Amino acid sequence: MSKVPDIKIEPPGPSAREIIEKDSNYVATTTKSLPVVGKRARGLVVEDVDGNMFLDFSSGISVLNVGHCHPKVVEAVRKQSEELMHFAGTDFYYDIQASLAQRLSEVTPGNFHKKVFFSNSGTEAIEAAIKIARWSTGRKRLLAFIGAFHGRTMGSLSLTASKPVQQDRFFPGVPGVTHVPFAYCYRCPYHLEYPSCDLWCAKTIEETYLSTYVPPDEVAALFGEPVQGEGGYVVPPPEFYPTVHRILKRYGILFADDEVQAGLGRTGRMWGIENWGIEPDIMTVSKSLGSGIPIAATVFRKELDFGVEGAHSNTFGGNLVGCAASLATLDIIKEEGLVENSARMGAYFRKRLSELKEKHRLIGDVRGLGLMLAVEFVKDRKTKEYAVKERDEIINASFKSGLILLGCGKSGIRLIPSLNVEREQVDTAVELLDKAIGRVGK
Ligand SMILES: Cc1ncc(COP(=O)(O)O)c(C=O)c1O
């Protein structure tokens, strides 16, 4: 294969520009980040419609943990599509859905019997988790973290708290949600320092919220991401989640672990929450599960099940093609040792990014677990003023040289290649990022 990236014509080229114009005319406004128009891809290499070859370090927003179009996923999808594509798995039966549910029950934390509700996207998995929590506890209130992202439908949006634009004009959401602080140590909301802070951000959940205006026996669940994703790839210190979990247990509050972005090997463990040694009551999984075929799963303790037909259901959840892609994905992660590679390459990548921090004053923080890594850009290391414009320019300059990146938080860039990324690809990405920061930081 020729060297990648290989930029033949400055992107977006003429074919790309034509499609972008059509898209802008007819497709609703969403969150478009870069003017890249994909044509085909394999592994970490994406070809655009003008023949440019890009190195993809965005993984389709953390969907392609096994890489683009992995041959085993393609084959599983092809085979299943020829046999049976849809058979309403909520109302009728087929083996592949039951098998995937069993498999997810076995590979998720907690040596107890679990059940699975299937849907098609992260936000739907969260909606199901909210309903399961309310249904099973009879309690109405929910807790979520400041900085969280759990989706954009009205239930999940009510838990989301990472950017004002996500909430603007959509108020009111689902009532009964209270947001509590997260352990964003680089920008501690209490201006304390770890570890002398003694984990006040966790303890205050009980000492302030639950003891003043949020009656604990009305709270069904707390929702949390093991590492905050859209909020800026914020990694809490090791004692944070165990401390929070002990508080929840004292009051019979369920813990709903959102693994939509951190799951399936991304953090160097199969599940992000395994970094913190906690067994959640409910887990939400999507993104990488189907390697590009939409599927989501809400995995929960068996005793929380609705147990009543019609309390919750849908049309496409557990679709056969999605289940086939998911089973293939789980096989690939195991067979190719991708969790181990995520830990190994993540450590190497992080070291290389820390070297960039030594070199560029624009970098305020390098953080992450496994291959869930990010760099936060600041105008000044002392004041930590967000370098938003500079961050955007760095993403754009990287793109022009053939590296696809995505932002996160206010002024961060996430670095989330597929988990089978090779050392040379990491080196190439670091080299391109180095040049882009150098150009912008001048
Ligand atoms: C942690 C987390 N939860 C939920 C969602 C929502 O998933 P979707 O965009 O598939 O609805 C996302 C999406 O980025 C996410 O990162």
Automatic annotation (TrEMBL):
Keyword Lipid metabolism recorded: no
Stored CDD domains: OAT_like (cd00610)
Swiss-Prot/TrEMBL cofactor(s): pyridoxal 5'-phosphate
Keywords: Aminotransferase, Pyridoxal phosphate, Transferase
InterPro entries, per database record: Aminotrans_3, Aminotrans_3_PPA_site, Class-III_PLP-dep_AT, PyrdxlP-dep_Trfase, PyrdxlP-dep_Trfase_major, PyrdxlP-dep_Trfase_small
Protein origin, superkingdom: Archaea
MF-aspect GO terms: identical protein binding; pyridoxal phosphate binding; transaminase activity
Annotated NCBIfam families: PRK05769.1
UniProt similarity note: Belongs to the class-III pyridoxal-phosphate-dependent aminotransferase family.
Name of this protein: Acetyl ornithine aminotransferase family protein
Species name: Candidatus Sysuiplasma superficiale
